[in-house]
Write a sequence for this structure.
């Protein structure tokens, strides 16, 4: 790069795995005066949210909204699922699985953590062995993450359910879909999931600030009276209240609700299965580019080797050396694209930390956005003399044109 002139001026693009790009429609829906919360339009907006929020998770059962982020949604699920001292089995394939385990443990849950590392999917045989070893059914719930955003590993939730069924274990199944809801196929009721948690700022394309918990009738019945519940976190009135304020245990998150309502309408208009297919196609373009880049470099590689084990909303990768940080900085300063840092792959004070990055392709993204990110990354590798296989963009375009 010899020219001192930056090409970053123009609309910046945030390609980090949350918060994701917010559609102008969502932003416009939020741009309004404060609504009356004692009647009127906001009641209709919320009445329209419930069925769409259920549909996006593939359930006809209960749904509760919290003013909070993903960590709040974890805590909400924990508070309702457990009494102090109850046992949870947590499956981790990255930083977020471990985070949910830590949250539960800090609340007084007796957590058994099965940690499968950072680059391989969960080992169902180990899960089965752990469940069989619990012959007294002390494990009250199994907590899993559909797509761990740090590693981009996807867990096959349907197969996990099948293991619970094969063992005949009574544990409730709870799934963190924060990074995958509205991106990867997910069918809560069909797959026999009891609790699903998500947040507004990823596939749901709404600003951070809403944590959402869906729960089965079975979970509702079995968890009544759990002593970790406090009035604010109790899911009962949030999901089944008779007065508007009870949905939010106080003032509702008015502007987030307008935004969420519009985002859910956009998903409905596109069709949820088309939304999933779009994410699959765009992820395929990212993976095709990385395959080629990696073919010309001993260090460039996606974190997850098998495409079937990769989430469609985010790709974690190694560039090597300090080159991920160099590339991220180049993309932001010279081209207006912000890539995600590597999360949980190395500690931030370890020089290896600078070798990892993540590319988000979640939510309000289309072909020109994702191909644009890839083209910028390839340009940055050229400008910085980062060794890479030539032709990543061609592979990405072919993966889209030939689908
Ligand atoms: C983003 C994320 C979280 C944490 O959400 P916050 O809103 O940052 O608290 C938890 N789990 C997964 C899978 C995530 O992607």
């Amino acid at each position: 790069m010899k020219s001192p002139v930056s090409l970053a001026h123009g609309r910046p693009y945030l390609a980090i795995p949350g918060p994701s790009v917010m559609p102008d429609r969502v932003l416009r829906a939020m741009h309004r005066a404060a609504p009356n919360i004692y009647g009127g339009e906001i009641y209709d907006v919320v009445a329209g949210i419930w069925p769409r929020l259920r549909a996006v998770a593939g359930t006809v059962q209960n749904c509760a909204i919290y003013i909070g982020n993903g960590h709040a949604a974890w805590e909400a699920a924990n508070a309702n699922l457990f009494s102090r001292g109850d046992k949870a089995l947590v499956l981790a394939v990255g930083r977020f699985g471990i985070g949910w385990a830590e949250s539960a443990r800090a609340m007084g849950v007796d957590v058994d953590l099965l940690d499968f590392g950072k680059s391989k999917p969960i080992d169902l045989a180990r899960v089965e062995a752990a469940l069989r070893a619990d012959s007294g059914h002390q494990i009250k719930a199994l907590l899993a993450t559909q797509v761990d955003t740090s590693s981009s590993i996807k867990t096959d939730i349907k197969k996990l359910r099948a293991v619970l069924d094969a063992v005949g274990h009574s544990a409730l199944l709870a799934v963190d879909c924060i990074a995958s809801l509205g991106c990867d196929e997910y069918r809560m009721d069909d797959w026999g999931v009891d609790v699903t948690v998500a947040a507004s700022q990823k596939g749901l394309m709404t600003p951070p600030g809403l944590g959402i918990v869906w729960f089965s009738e079975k979970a509702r019945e079995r968890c009544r009276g759990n002593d970790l519940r406090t009035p604010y976190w109790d899911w009962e009135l949030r999901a089944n209240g008779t007065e508007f304020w009870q949905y939010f245990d106080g003032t509702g998150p008015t502007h987030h609700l307008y935004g969420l309502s519009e985002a859910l309408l956009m998903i409905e208009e596109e069709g949820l299965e088309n939304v999933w297919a779009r994410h699959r196609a765009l992820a395929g373009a990212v993976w095709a580019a990385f395959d080629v880049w990696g073919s010309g470099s001993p260090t460039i590689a996606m974190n997850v080797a098998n495409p079937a084990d990769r989430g469609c909303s985010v790709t974690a990768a190694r560039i090597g050396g300090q080159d991920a940080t160099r590339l991220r900085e180049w993309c932001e300063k010279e081209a207006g694209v912000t890539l995600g840092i590597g999360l949980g792959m190395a500690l931030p004070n370890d020089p290896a930390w600078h070798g990892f990055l993540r590319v988000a392709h979640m939510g309000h993204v289309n072909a020109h956005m994702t191909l644009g990110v890839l083209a910028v990354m390839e340009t940055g590798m050229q400008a910085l003399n980062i060794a890479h296989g030539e032709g990543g963009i061609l592979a990405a375009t072919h993966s889209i044109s030939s689908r």
Q: What stands out?
A: The radius of gyration is 22 Å. The first helix runs from residue 24 to 30. The pocket of pyridoxal-5'-phosphate is lined by residues 18, 69-71, 96, 145, 148-149, 176, 178-179, 199, 208 (CB under 6 Å). The first strand starts at residue 13 and ends at 15.
